Sequence to fold (304 residues):
Amino acid sequence: MSNGTHLKQNPLLGIAYMLAGTVFFSIGDSTGKWLTTDYPVMQIAWLRSVMGLSLIGLFALFTGRLQQLKTKKPGWHLFRSLMSSGTIIIIFYSLKYIPIAEYVSLTFAAPFIIALLSPLVLQEKVSLHSWIAICVGFIGILIVLRPTPDHFHPGHLAALAVAISIAALAITARILATTETATALNFYIYPANILISAYWAIDNWVTPVAFDWFLFVLLGTTATVALGCFVQSLRYAMPAVVSPIDYARMLWMISIGYLIFGEVPTPITWVGIIIIIASGIYVVSHGKKIPELEMAKETNTGAL
Fold:
């Protein structure tokens, strides 16, 4: 489907896509955390990128969307790919060392950061009420982060860095949305990481057993499909309708953390999580524009 095609609004279908996306993202993140037990972070990041690039490339090939990979902004794609390279690495570093619930709650700082950067980069106004929600949300983030000797780990800062990178990638995608398709935006985020992490991945290579190869494929597939579900959800419903559903990820991740990894958030961490969720839902539901969400709706290509 080419740019500019408009679909009839179907909020229930949009919500269903978003909910499916939260499930796939949660499976992908928990699979990545499981793999960090036995495999180097650089190897996981490299294989994740190779599989992501391959899946999007094959999808474009077999659905006749190869023309959507054409780009007028190769320099911007290189910048985004370099940024994504660091992001993919620190995602798995963070998942390796901190509880999964704390990781995902810190990454939900992205909407706050997008709103903070929007007036500077996109000249988009943010309402006073949204500014208050952003400030409250950062209080929740500090509660989860808690720089105390018995709690803090550099992995917490890595998770916060993931949120900053997500925000930057979203805003640059917004800038490029007028000329670039969603297929191109998501295809070109992988090449830099494949090249950069290849040396360390191969130098410290640990040969996966058969079942772990399945887990690597599951990791690459679920993360790529999840992003596709998010884009599709925004083709059928307004961002304010579907974006709060993304916070269901917190429920899945906390459940997975408890059932698989034996992780139980402390009472004070629960306080921080609740503050982040409440503030985040307000920002994405009542803010002027959330670039990450509007971009996906505007490109409207059905890519991925």
Summary: Residues 1-6, 288-304 have pLDDT under 50 and may be disordered. The chain is about 75% helix and 0% strand. The CA atoms of residues 133 and 226 lie 27 Å apart. The chain has one domain: 11-299.
